[in-house]
Specification:
Layout: E1 3-4, H1 7-16, E2 19-24, H2 30-45, E3 49-53, E4 71-72, E5 80-88, H3 99-102, E6 103-112, E7 123-126, H4 133-144, H5 150-163, H6 174-185, H7 190-198, H8 202-211, E8 216-218, E9 223-228, H9 243-247, E10 254-262, E11 265-272, H10 278-284, E12 288-289, E13 293-298, H11 302-316
Parallel strand pairs: 1-7, 2-3, 2-5, 3-4, 5-6, 6-7, 9-10
Antiparallel strand pairs: 8-9, 10-11, 11-13, 12-13
Helix pairs in contact: 1-4, 2-4, 2-5, 4-5, 5-6
The structure holds adenosine monophosphate and manganese (II) ion (2 copies).
Adenosine monophosphate binds next to strand 12 and strand 13.
């Protein structure tokens, strides 16, 4: 069980630590990267010894983000001793992979916004109505009176828009937009970021043409899903928004994508349009996330994984 902190206590913890490692979930997204790299940039400017770790490769898609080259993959077998390990945008320890084993920290602090948070760290700042961990960063900077330079602002803005679908998702609050407005005042160029996000690599579009034919409906059209079979899987291809092709279809309540990262290791991305809480479905398979967007991994063949997800959905539809 974690001790929950106020933002001021979180801020003081950062100021007191001299050496810090920031980390986030595997298969990192814009929120994990933007909130962590933005915070790391600021802490470096304060003279802290800061590193940013993820037990994964960062997809080229995120190359447009300032200072993204700061993100390192820790070496297995090496021990990293630090004052403070900060786990951002991750709800459980297994989500940070080997970072949890190779970093020996005096204190572990978790900053997160997932309803499925497992309270694994020594200290926790959890805000489940924040649209993104990037929003929590804006709150922290504001409550501490810390300045966001243009690059930090760009990182936090990217974090926010990637998790709230550029203000389209239900997690978007008036406060989300007020924060975004303040970040624009710091020099963020929203058109440049939108263009970077919307521009897909050819490899992504080529894969999409092969994945779209797998679109299948179930439960009278209330569920739609697509599949990336293992022969089509390519780690370097960015596929995070593919599930939306199944999601935004008339009559669809729940959409999911299954991706065979190995023939019997199936990454599942679930999205709900309204009524169904997909975090409950993901939790049932040892995963987690938010009511409208969640994920899990199923260790079975892709056909069996699809069957298991459909069975679980059948119980709640
Ligand atoms: P994704 O489908 O990978 O875009 O993930 C949707 C949301 O669910 C994100 O907030 C993820 O952080 C979360 N999520 C995905 N996979 C897992 C997992 N295995 N355990 C906990 N949360 C997850
Ligand atoms: Mn995330
Ligand atoms: Mn997030």
């Amino acid at each position: 069980m974690s001790k929950e902190l106020t933002l001021k206590e979180v801020g003081s913890m950062f100021m007191e630590a001299q050496s810090l490692i920031l980390c986030f979930h595997v298969n990192p997204d814009g929120d994990a990267l933007g909130s962590s790299v933005g915070l790391a940039r600021f802490l470096k400017q304060q003279g802290k010894d800061v590193r940013v770790f993820v037990d994964d490769v960062v997809n080229d898609f995120y190359k447009f983000m300032p200072d993204i080259e700061m993100v390192e993959r820790p070496e297995v077998g090496t021990t990293y001793d630090v004052d403070l390990l900060v786990v951002l945008d991750a709800s459980s320890k297994d989500r940070i992979g080997v970072v949890g084993e190779c970093v020996k920290a005096k204190t572990i602090l978790n900053i997160d916004h997932h309803v499925s948070n497992t309270k694994f760290a020594d200290y926790l700042y959890l805000d489940t109505i924040a649209a993104a961990t990037g929003e929590i960063m804006c709150d922290l900077f504001e409550s501490m009176g810390w300045a966001t330079d243009e690059k930090v602002a760009t990182l936090f803005y990217t974090a926010i828009i990637m998790d709230c679908g550029s203000f389209k998702f239900s997690c978007t609050r008036p406060k989300t937009m007020r924060m975004a407005a303040k970040l624009l005042e710091c020099g963020v160029q929203p058109d440049d970021i939108a263009e970077a996000i919307d521009t897909q690599k050819r490899s992504t579009m080529e894969l999409l043409t092969k994945v779209l034919p797998t679109l299948t409906f179930a439960y009278g059209g209330r569920v739609a899903y697509i599949a990336i079979t293992n022969d089509l899987y390519d780690k370097s291809v960015h596929t995070d928004n593919f599930v939306n092709y199944a999601r935004y279809i008339e009559g669809v309540d729940v959409a999911f994508m299954v991706k065979a990262v190995e023939s019997s290791v199936i990454r599942v991305s679930l999205r709900s349009n309204k009524t169904v809480d997909v975090s409950e479905i993901a939790l049932g398979f040892g995963g987690g996330g938010h009511k409208r967007a969640s994920g899990c991994t199923i260790y079975a063949s892709i056909e069996e994984a699809i069957k298991q997800v459909l069975d679980a959905l059948g119980k709640v539809l």
